[in-house]
Write a structure and sequence with these properties.
176 residues; alpha/beta; 5 helices; 7 strands; 40% helix
Length: 176
């Protein structure tokens, strides 16, 4: 099952994703696939916060910043939590090791590869499109690509959830 969780910054997406993983894979193998690169103190503080939230919850953690399709997993998982699509896209688009202009197709190939290694894949992404601002061309291209990814993921997904202020709104399918 592919479950996509979206919403604005600090809307409760991560907490909901972790709750779903823990419920759906109560006694099973859980993988947390972290995509945020530890650039600067703010990113490191956010990563420490997420590690603390997962502590003692049975997650194996793998950090992977680009090329999900090349990730070698030597076992099957009940649930894989990919956190998060917006970081992964930025890494793929802007990193010298990333897919550049082919980031969307590379990421979708990586999603296909991950789904072969789990019963449930939960993907966290971001809703960044509602402020109405015009940004520099590079940022606008990133936003366009994230929109393409989110639409492709939602189309493929069995369930899509939207979070706002910690409240989950079911957009597609049923999770539990």
């Amino acid at each position: 099952m592919l479950i996509v969780i979206t919403g604005g910054a600090a809307s409760g997406k991560s907490a909901q994703a972790e709750r779903i993983v823990c419920e759906r894979a109560a006694a099973g193998k859980r993988l947390y696939l972290a995509t945020m690169q530890p650039f600067g103190e703010a990113a490191q503080a956010r990563m420490r916060r997420h590690h603390k939230l997962r502590a003692g919850r049975g997650f194996e953690t793998v950090e992977r910043y680009t090329r999900l399709d090349k990730l070698v997993l030597d076992k099957q998982y009940d649930s894989i939590l990919l956190e998060c699509m917006s970081n992964l896209l930025a890494n793929e688009q802007f990193s010298p090791n990333g897919a550049g202009g082919n980031a969307v197709s590379a990421i979708l190939c990586g999603i296909d590869a991950l789904q072969k290694h789990c019963k449930d894949l939960i993907v966290v992404t971001n809703e960044i499109f509602s402020d109405g601002q015009v940004y520099p061309a590079e940022t606008m291209q990133y936003m366009k690509m994230l929109g393409q990814l989110n639409c492709a993921l939602a189309e493929r997904a069995d369930a899509v959830l939207y979070t706002i202020c910690g409240i989950v709104i079911q957009q597609k399918g049923m999770v539990l």
